[in-house]
Design brief:
Residues 1-20 are annotated as: Disordered. The chain is α+β, with helices and mostly antiparallel strands and 58 residues long. The chain has one helix spanning 19-29; strands at residues 3-10, 35-39, 44-50.
Length: 58
């Protein structure tokens, strides 16, 4: 499954702070299917959405 990254947040945020989760929740309230995943190579949390197929890919 291909995904589009909406935003990236560093993993070392202050304790109790979850900016990636808050950002994703706000997008979900707007009707966007956003979720948070961990990018271990970048040591960051990514907010992603499923990439929609385009007519050009058919």
């Amino acid at each position: 499954m291909r995904r589009t990254v909406l935003e990236q947040f560093p993993a070392g945020g202050p304790r109790g702070s979850r900016p990636a989760e808050e950002f994703a929740a706000a997008r979900r309230c707007e009707g966007v299917a956003a979720e948070v995943v961990m990018d271990l190579e970048r040591d960051a949390f990514l907010v992603v959405v499923p990439r929609q197929p385009t007519d050009a890919s058919r």
